[in-house]
Amino acid sequence: MSDLKNIYICFPGGKHKVLTLSFDDGREEDRRLLELFRKYGVKGAFNLNSGLHLQGRIPQSEYPALYAGQEVACHTALHPTIARSPIEQTARQVLEDRQGLERLMGYPVRGLAYPNGSYSQQIIDLLPGLGIRYARTVNATYSFAMPPNYLEWNPTCHFRNRLMELGEQFVNLHKTQYLYMMYVWGHSYELPEQGGWELLESFFALASGQEDTWYATNIEIVDYMDAASRLQFTMDGDLVCNPSFCSCWIEADGRILEIPGGGTVKI
């Protein structure tokens, strides 16, 4: 008799859904937005321009304390439409933004949101050499699939577009043989308009605190999936080794197992 098992990669804690968010430009409205993030326990990336010091933006001296517990990511130093820029200048825009943000935050900054939603295949090909691990577009999928390419990471939706409809669908997803992701993006300066604050808080109230959902920053998702992809299984499917530092989780014939970093577990 075959001892073949159904083995699935899970998110941390054995969960099969993840919610993440992404907000651009570092405007003053981020203060109230971050209060909502903390209230509801959600997480995301805040994509900032280290070369812009304009009225209405968060002073850079406040970044470390204000964005603590969230992710700070690149948005280029000066926010140009980079598909129209010389590729050498695009490289400088990303690298100088990384350098400036890293000096402020005290950790490697490895994410990017394409400014003005602008990018090209040439830019995608450039980013790994600049230390960028993922890059978010503005191209909504209105779906919950994991991205095939993190350097062209399409979000589920802008918060203005079908947010509550999609949120209801997301919380009701129940097929644990799939990994589902809901990824919401926007700008905090849009929230004071047309009841945006009330809309977003209603969504957080709906989607937060779900036992089957992981609440993660963008880079946490990328890093976890990288680690999970390095799990080493025997052909019999009776042992799994985790060569990474962090724990990973799997489901094996309905059982949830944690594989500690550096550990080997019998399935």
SSE arrangement:
Layout: E1 7-10, E2 17-24, H1 30-40, E3 44-48, H2 63-66, E4 71-74, H3 87-105, E5 111-113, H4 121-126, E6 134-136, E7 157-158, H5 163-171, E8 180-187, H6 196-207, E9 213-215, H7 218-229, E10 232-233, E11 239-241, E12 248-252, E13 255-259, E14 264-266
Parallel strand pairs: 2-3, 2-8, 2-9, 3-4, 5-6, 7-8
Antiparallel strand pairs: 1-12, 10-11, 11-14, 12-13
Major β-sheet, in short? Answer: 6 strands, parallel
Quaternary structure:
single chain
Strand content: 15-25%
Structural class: alpha/beta
Question: Which overall shape is indicated by the principal axes computed on the Cα atoms?
Answer: globular
Q: Please provide the ordered H/E string of secondary-structure elements.
A: EEHEHEHEHEEHEHEHEEEEE
DSSP, total strands: 14
Mean pLDDT across the residues is: 97
Q: Number of helix segments?
A: 7
Kindly, what is the distance between the CA atoms of the first and last residues, rounded to a whole number of angstroms? 18 Å
Radius of gyration: 19 Å
Helix share of residues? 25-40%
Explain this structure to me?
It is a single chain. With 267 residues, this protein is of the alpha/beta class. It has helices spanning 30-40, 63-66, 87-105, 121-126, 163-171, 196-207, 218-229, and strands at 7-10, 17-24, 44-48, 71-74, 111-113, 134-136, 157-158, 180-187, 213-215, 232-233, 239-241, 248-252, 255-259, 264-266. Helices cover 27% and strands 22% of the residues. β3, α2 (63-66) and β4 form a beta-alpha-beta unit. The protein starts with 6 loop residues before the first strand and ends with a strand.
